[in-house]
Amino acid sequence: MNTHLTTALRLATAEVPVMPLSADKRPVANCPACTNLVCGGRPNMKTPGPCTCPAPCHGWAATTTNPATLTGPAWASAWRNAGALAYHPGGAGLTVVDLDHVDAITWARRELPATRIVPTTRGEHWIYRGVMLSTNGVRPGVDVKSAMAYARWLGPGTGTMTALPDRVRTLVVKKPSPARPVTVPVPAGVGECRHLTPAYLERGIAMAEQRIHEATSGVHATVYRTFLAVLSAHGRCGCLTDSHAARLFSAAQTKGESPRHCTDAWSNARTALGM
């Protein structure tokens, strides 16, 4: 049996979702409909496209702990030609801080609590217990890989794994830009603020955040409808600022929305309102 597949089955038994990577370390589509991004997936197969397959079939979403899937015909050739093995840290309840060079490692040793360390080709993976949003480039040479991302399996590493620290979580929190009015056209005859007190706007933003946080399904649609409601109520008088938008984007991202999806939903809502 292929050594990568043997390792994959062992990890799957430990509830670590895995998948094969090609010889050039890219995810492998496990169905013909998605080969060569025919389904519309993003480059390098990192994000599944809107395919009609019965289950996610490539990118991080294809990782699985099901032995029948791992040994099934869809991935037979992938395992024969596999150049590496990948796993979904978030699916295993983990976060990987990917340190790409010596300077990044030096920073981690100074700023982060010790945990399990796995050597990589150019640096190290620091692995913590806990799940968070994945974000690349949180600082020079540092990526965070957890939910909705995959990482190469390079062995169990050494050291005692510790809980995900707040210092890592704060790496992906963007500082809000200076507050200024969102630039939207003001229709003729509409320009005077109807928010009698700042509390009116604050209550509206807080309710929008709560609506997003409470979404249990259809998150993308909920985010769009919420953005639409906020812009409709508060977007034309100049009171809505980048700080308010950042709060809404942050709420959406805690539910799994990517920054790109947040931007698209915001733009689509503005277009729908003629802004």
Shape: globular
Total of helices: 9
Low-confidence stretches: 43-48, 176-191
- Secondary-structure-based class equals alpha+beta
* Tally of strands: 9
- What composes the largest sheet? 6 strands, mixed
Mean model confidence by pLDDT: 80
Amino-to-carboxy terminus distance: 59 Å
Integer-rounded radius of gyration: 22 Å
- The helix/strand order is HEHHEEHEEEEEEHHHHH
Note the beta-strand portion. 5-15%
Helical amount among residues, as a percent range?
25-40%
How does the SSE layout of this entry go?
Layout (H helix, E strand, L loop, with lengths): L2 H11 L4 E4 L45 H4 L5 H5 L3 E4 L6 E6 L2 H10 L4 E4 L4 E6 L5 E5 L2 E4 L5 E2 L9 E2 L2 H4 L28 H16 L5 H16 L7 H13 L4 H14 L3
Parallel strand pairs: 5-9
Antiparallel strand pairs: 1-2, 2-8, 3-5, 3-7, 4-5, 6-7
Helix pairs in contact: 6-7, 6-8, 7-9
Describe what you observe in this structure.
With 275 residues, the chain is α+β, with helices and mostly antiparallel strands. It is built from 9 helices and 9 strands. It has helices spanning 3-13, 67-70, 76-80, 102-111, 166-169, 198-213, 219-234, 242-254, 259-272; strands at 18-21, 84-87, 94-99, 116-119, 124-129, 135-139, 142-145, 151-152, 162-163. Helix 6 packs antiparallel against helix 7, helix 6 (198-213) packs parallel to helix 8 (242-254) and helix 7 (219-234) crosses helix 9 (259-272). The longest helix has 16 residues, at 198-213. The protein is globular, with a radius of gyration of 22 Å. The model is unreliable at 43-48 and 176-191 (pLDDT under 50).
